[in-house]
Amino acid sequence: MSATAFKTYPPPVMEVSEEGDELLEVAMGPHHPSTHGVFRMDVALDGERVVRLKPVFGYLHRNHEKIAEKASYLAAMPYTDRLDYFCSLTNNWAYALAVEKLAGLEVPERAEYIRVITAELTRIQNHASAIGFLMQEMGASGTPLMYAFREREKILDLFEELTGSRMMCNYMRFGGCRVELPSGWLEKVKTVVEGLPSFIDETEALLTGNEILMARSQGVGILKPDLAVNAGVTGVMLRSTGVNYDIRKVDHYGIYDRFKFRVPLGDHGDIYDRYMLRVLEMRESVEILKQALKDVPGGPIMDPKSKIRGFRPKPGEAYGRIEAPKGELGFYLISDGSGNPYRYRVRPPSLINLTILEDMCLGRNVADVVLIFGSVDIVLGEVDR
Amino acid sequence: MLGEGILKGLGETAKNFVGSFVSKDRLTTVQYPEERIAPIENTRDFPFLVYDGPDDADGYDKLAGLRCVACQICEKECPPKCIYIVKSTDKKPDFVGKPQIYPARFDIDISVCMSCQICVEVCPFEAIKMDTEFELSTTDRFGGLLFDRDHLSRSNQHYHKIHPTEATEVDARLAEEKIKADAKAKAAAAAAAAKAASPVAAPPAVKPAPVKEPGA
Amino acid sequence: MKISSAFWTNLDQVFVLLQHWIEGFFPQWLQPAIGTVLAVVAIVAAFPGIFALTTVLERKGLGRIQNRLGPNRVGPLGILQPIADGIKSLTKEDIVPLTADAAVHFLAPVVLVIAVFLGFAVLPVGRNMVLVNLDAGLLFFFAIGASTELSIFMAGWSSRNKYSLLGAMRAVAQMISYEVPLLLSSVVAVMITGSLSTVKIVEAQSGFTGILPHWYVFTPWGFAGFVLFVIAALAETNRSPFDLPEGESELVAGYFTEYSGFKFALFFLGEYLAMFSIAGFAITLFLGGWGAPLSILGFIPSWAWFFAKLLAGILFFIWLRGTLPRLRQDQLMNFAWKFMLPMSLLNLLVAGAWRFLGDGWSRWVVCSAVLLVAYVLLGRVLMHHQHLGARSYRYAE
User: Which residues are bridge partners to B84 per DSSP?
Assistant: First the structure.
């Protein structure tokens, strides 16, 4: 091979920091050792401190919105499972909510109860996994992650019995749920829910008072409330700064008004607050589940007006949003009277929570960047859609 | 605060370590493929076509009992468009005896199929259901994951084996339909016989009334 | 049939007797050399064998802590897994970067392994079972231990890789910072014994009052010294929670990024052997070396006690690894200089006070009180200084 066969590139230009030293440019990713998916961060370091951070994503873009605009309303439902692949049932619910607003469908009571039960189970397993992954990045060699996955397996088995699939559930329909509960399912859910408080206690005993965890997460990745509100951050990130905004309490969607549950708030906005809020939210979800399981009514599970095939809502637009475990998940639909939406837009909480990553990471060590990124709790399926 | 958090954490892990030897709850590993978890009944993997007939009999013509009538609804509703149907040119009798067209080709590309089960939901003839087999990996890149009609046809007994509750419900529904269809056929035959016996007495314009009379 | 005490004594000295027996086959002038060669061969065979066992124990132990099985396919219960790992590391391609300094790159793992094996020379494994009874044995060990840091720096420098160099510098900074508390916490044992020889330190702990032993760990200053020594030992050998230099979720794999195949296995071996030798010295200095914990159990051979204690130490390290997350670099250094150093200096004073307060219960109370108060105060001040602490959370109205 001759020398001219290879194209030569000019050497990269190194930036200069304020003190006159060269900045070290590091590309963290897209093959991350710390999971979460394919995501790249171009970080410019001055010694160990971060001077600039640019997130680069799009490695998992799968044209979800375009596909949904070409396929019918029903056909878009299995694709919503794959947005935030940890929490498929809440994705389904958000989409179903948007379409129900668009078409003016009503959901029977039994279906609402089933939706709340599945959504809270999803929230518990998502928060447990998020804590586990954060600990994995902190170097706890996977122990809290394995405990979280042990509980998650039980919940996924429940989902498989109900919907047929562990993760890609495709269960909600416009106006209700797809199939009736199998016999004995509610008893199984009760058994799992009874075992959950001891798991949360075990996680707290292992982690909450741990001085190393405190040293690495308190005071790290601080987010100010006004910046969070201005950037549109929602979910646990927002509540950890002290802003009281939980869509279950604000929108009163579903039948959440019937259940007594509290919304925990943080004060400092650092990683420790977000970790503790996830633990406290898991406990609140257990409370909701206990109340919901007590009195699930009988009745139909689908609105009789809704159609499976040939579903053509009247022209109009609707925005349906829920409190997904990762934040506010919203679907914006414009219908032009045909069988597929004219415009279908997903408001992904993970992407919008990531926009302030640089502000949280400036001035911190490289080791902290990984932790801050983990505490935002993103899933690349949602960021890239 | 001064190390007791770490000691509590150490206690938790020690509890789990000891527990993993004594209780099944603390050692959740299932050593696949020697041990397998019992499959859950409602699980769904890839579709299959149901035929009414003996279970996997060699030389049996699976087409004779095939319920699918090539209406192509599943092909239209499938989100990733993994079903390919070609209608036949002749007809064969279906489970109530009525001549129906059948699929000359019915291909599912299971490397595209995402197991969403919409084809099952929309099928009006209970002809396509979800199988539970997932160990389908093959070394044939070009056709190994493209299942044709013959490969996809499984008997109703197989359906009963994998999804007993669902299969009993489907059978009950089909039996009901058959009864209704039989009643309709009998009524139509009796009406035709009545028409043949007294051609003047029965006015042809009034259609619904003659159907009800033979029931009395 | 009653087992006579002569049997137990012979069992205790069985390796020494074996050595003498083999020496007997050679002429007189050659015997010391043969004896030394035999002891060296025994060390080189035994400790890598323990290394192989430790890799299996670690993976299975971590697995059980995490509610899963560890490796269990190779051999019964996975015991033969190290053989599979060894074959794998031997057959991997040895990649040396084009711009790397080839000689230094090759020598770095060799230097590590040699330095670590040298450290085993002054470790008393049983009664009369030490390779060289140096008068300044402990000093020799710490001097050799410092050369392991040299090999890490050689590895990072020769790879000509920005990130390897960063990782190596972090590792060297960490190891140098923790040398000081390591040494200071071991000086208390030397002070009370009055000698730097490891054999004498062990013999000084071999008495019993009633049934309980005279181990240094059962005294206030000895307990504090032991805890400090173990923490510093974890940091010296880059074990969790101080394994940032080789942390996987950081930038890269640290200073041995550019190593593959057998050289990587040598680094691994060197690190684990360093862990064994430091654990062995912790046992020698504070846990009574090869002494039995209760006088009635004295008939069990001394080398069996030593290896049992070593195994307990290894299991404790594995337990720590499975539980704790890792500390950040600057937090590591803070901890070393602001907490461990003052505590070990105070420990020296307390040990001196112990000596001069004479026998009696008063010295127990005074020494324990001083150490406890200092620990609590220092801990509180440091935590408060960094605004760390338990928090309570409010709920929305």
Answer: B107
Can you tell me which residue has the tokens 């840091």? C149
State whether residue A209 sits within 8 Å of chain B by CB.
Answer: yes
User: DSSP string spanning C34-64?
Assistant: HHHHHHHHHHHHHHHHHHHHHHHHHHHHHHH
| Among candidate residues B53, B215, B43, the one with its CA nearest the CA of residue B131 | B43
| Min distance B147 CA to chain A CA atoms (Å) | 22
Q: Which domain holds residue A144?
A: 64-384
- What was the pLDDT predicted at B98? 76
Instruction: Say which of B3, B17, B31 has its CB closest to residue C65.
Output: B17
Within-domain flag for B28 = no
Please indicate, yes or no, whether residues A364 and A329 belong to a single structural domain of this protein.
yes
* Chain C residue whose CA is closest to A139: C325
pLDDT in tens, B132-165: 888 888 898 888 889 988 888 888 888 888 888 8
How many CB atoms lie under 10 A from the CB of residue C32? 10
Other C-beta atoms closer than 10 Å to the C-beta of A106 total 12
Residue A42 has pLDDT above 90, yes or no: no
Task: Give start and end residues of each alpha helix (H) in C13-136.
Answer: 14-23, 31-65, 81-91, 102-119
What is the rounded CA–CA span in Å between residue A101 and residue A341?
14
Residues A32 and A126 in one domain: no
Sequence-separated (6 or more) residues with CB below 8 Å from residue A280: A264, C393
Looking at the structure of chain C, the number of domains it has is 1
Backbone angles phi, psi at C196, to 5 degrees: -90, 0
Q: Which tokens sit at C174?
A: 């960490």
Tell me the residue range of the domain where B108 lies: 47-169
Q: How close B38 gets to chain A, by Cα (Å)?
A: 11
Would you say residue B185 lies in a domain?
no
Report which secondary-structure segment, H or E, holds C368: helix C361-385
pLDDT confidence tier of residue A7, bands split at 50, 70 and 90: low
Q: How far is A369 from chain C (nearest CA, A)?
A: 10
| Residue-level pLDDT at C64 | 87
Whether C386 sits inside 8 A of A277 (CB atoms) is no
Global ipTM: 0.84
Asked whether C324 and C333 are in contact (CB, 8 A), the reply is: no
Task: State residue A324 phi and psi, 5-degree precision.
Answer: -75, 160
- CB-based contacts of C312, cutoff 8 Å, min separation 6: none
* Mean of pLDDT values over A269-276: 91
A153-167 pLDDT per residue, tens: 999 999 999 998 899
* pLDDT tens sequence across C165-189: 777 888 888 889 999 999 999 898 8
A221 and A204 within one domain: yes
Q: Is B197 on the interface with C (CB under 8 A)?
A: no
Does pLDDT of A183 surpass 80?
A: yes
Residue A191 scores a pLDDT above 90:
yes
Q: What is the CATH number of the domain that holds B161?
A: 3.30.70.3270
Let me know how long chain B is: 216
For the record, the structure tokens of A231 come out as 């950037």
Residues of chain C with pLDDT > 90, as a percent, come to 15
B93-104: burial string, b at 16+ Cβ within 10 Å, e else? ebbeeeebbbbe
pLDDT of residue A283: 93
Mean pLDDT (chain A) is 87
Q: Could you give the CA distance from residue C211 to residue A126 in angstroms, rounded to a whole number?
A: 55
Whether pLDDT at A253 is above 90: no
Q: Is B143 a domain residue? A: yes
Q: Which chains touch B (3 or more CB pairs under 8 A)?
A: A, C
pLDDT range class, residue A310, cuts 50, 70, 90:
confident
Nearest CA among B55, B57, B71 for reference residue B126: B71
**pTM summary value:** 0.88
A14: left (phi over 0), alpha (psi -120 to 50) or beta: beta
